[in-house]
Amino acid sequence: MSMKNIFRKFRSTGILVVGDLMVDQYIWGNVRRISPEAPVPVVEVTGESVMPGGAANVAYNVLSLEGKVFVTGLVGSDDTGKILINKFKEKGLDTDGIFIDNERPTTVKTRVIAHNQQVVRFDREVQTEINSSMIKMIMGYIKERFDEINGIIISDYSKGLITKGLVKKIVELAKGKKLIAVDPKIGHFHYYRDVDLITPNINEASSGSGIEIKDERSLINAGKVLQRKLRCESVVITRGEHGMTLFQEDNKVIHIPTCAREVYDVSGAGDTVVAALTLACCAGATLAQAADIANHAAGIVVGKLGTATATLEEVIESMKTNKSVQKIIEE
Known about the structure:
Layout: H1 3-9, E1 14-19, E2 21-34, E3 41-54, H2 55-64, E4 68-76, H3 79-90, E5 98-101, E6 107-114, E7 117-124, H4 132-145, E8 151-155, H5 164-174, E9 179-183, E10 197-198, H6 202-209, H7 216-230, E11 234-238, E12 244-247, E13 253-256, H8 269-282, H9 287-301, H10 312-321, E14 327-330
Parallel strand pairs: 1-4, 1-8, 2-6, 4-5, 8-9, 9-10, 10-11
Antiparallel strand pairs: 2-3, 6-7, 11-12, 12-13, 13-14
Helix pairs in contact: 2-8, 4-5, 6-7, 8-9, 9-10
């Protein structure tokens, strides 16, 4: 299928994101002096902003690419949770799958940024696993929206929502019917058996495969081990400034160099990759085509400061002006 036709299908392609919903808070300021109380910079605050983070950012990335998006997860019974729900409503998104958990706060990552550099980050979170009643509600929502979706993204930030039991139920429901993609977390790889697509970065792939990735040979070995261990059709290892490497069901290994021209902030780039990959694959793209789209989208996002998304228009323009060259490493 041509890229033009793939992009046309985005608007009619439904993606359900299930995962750890978070809020990314940014405190912006300037540093002109060191504190007399301790050897730390004094940040003169000039502004604050709040953006969806974690699985919420994955959903925003699908939406920014003009896909149909549904999301399920949980927030706390606090003002931050209300802010996140309101942000979804402002975008016209269905919030019926966002549940209130009175036992934990809404997860918040607060980053202090001065002169385009992150000074410090502090997190407010509870990481205990969700209980069976919460899993039942999430699965109920997935079943309600099942006929409206083409794929499911499991966005695991290890904040307690993605459990082995929940992933097993999703696989039992959707395997062979909807594409199941995972943005994984170290320590949870044994959860993901039988999913269709997984998108680890270098560190995650090393941990999940048990192979230290230090060169091309170890990279290929790690990717193939992950495919075999997880019984996973496709693995896409993201490699930062070195691009991404694709492992397909036909044993073909393809490397795609990065499209990033300037890198200001890599936070959220993984969200962009899994969103673009899944949306494109569900719209009829081959894995190589989908990875090309995701590569351009990630290149755009890392050129922006703070948690960001890439629009479909930006991706199309990037693909016109900055064509990537795929290299088949091994078949």
